[in-house]
Specification:
Layout: H1 2-23, E1 36-43, H2 55-58, E2 65-71, E3 76-82, H3 95-112, E4 116-122, E5 126-133, H4 136-148, H5 158-168, E6 174-179, H6 187-196, E7 198-205, H7 207-210, E8 217-222, E9 227-232, H8 236-259, E10 263-268, H9 273-289
Parallel strand pairs: 3-4, 3-6, 6-7, 7-10
Antiparallel strand pairs: 1-2, 4-5, 8-9
Helix pairs in contact: 1-3, 1-9, 3-4, 5-6
Amino acid sequence: MKELLKKIRKYEIQIRKAVNNHMHGDFHSVFKGSGLEFDDVRSYQYGDDVRTIDWNVSAKGHGTFVKTFKEEKEQNVFFILDVSASQEIGKNTRKIDIAREICAVLALSAVKDNGSVGLICFSDQKEAYIKPDKGMRHAYQMIGTLFNLTPNSIKTDLQKSLKFTLTMLKKKSVVIFISDFIDEGYNTNLSALAHKHDLVVIHLNDPREIKFPNLGIIPLYDKETKKTIWVNSSSSKFREKINKGYAENKLKLEQFCRRNGANYLWVNTNEDYLTKLVQLFKIRRMRSKR
């Protein structure tokens, strides 16, 4: 664990330096969303933006009221991490290894900027939950839970994890959702999460899932169902069907994120995720300036 923490701290410093170099010392802004949160209501005054009128309060008949906002000084960063069996796929580095490291690096970065961090690990059930809190001690406790967790279930239910997060998170937060998104029926809740919070989707995959190799007739073992099926991988039609399925899934999720105002990041197990995270932060910074 000591070596692991050393590696995480090294990565955190690297990403902070990279972001500061590219964004002129503006690392603190990478977790910021709109920068404003609801504060109170007051009577309407000439010149106020009509879009800020609180129609529910005004409808009570005591005058016209507008919403007031205050700048967000501290940010709540919440991680949703898929720990189902499909996350264990990977030749040298597994998807779950990348997911844990990204969580750990970003959690350390967030608490250093006085933010709160929280976490839910899920399969088709809640495997671990850490309530958002501040401080390095809390971040290290969270990292310990992440790396020591052995899930009770091997299956996936993204919808259930989203329902839990929507119910539990009352304050607007940066929500970082890390999964391979091999599931269906979660779009409605993912859309609700994107509209209520500042959503970042990190889509993990292994190269063999994108481009299925030609290995002849081979057994395929599904870790989530624990069933083995024999397939003819030398069939171009079979490989094309598998490859096309993954490509369509990626495209649909990316387009979904764009339509719902969420950030989308595609990460392979064989590539440097730090570079990808820096790119993501640059995009978020540009968006916050608009």
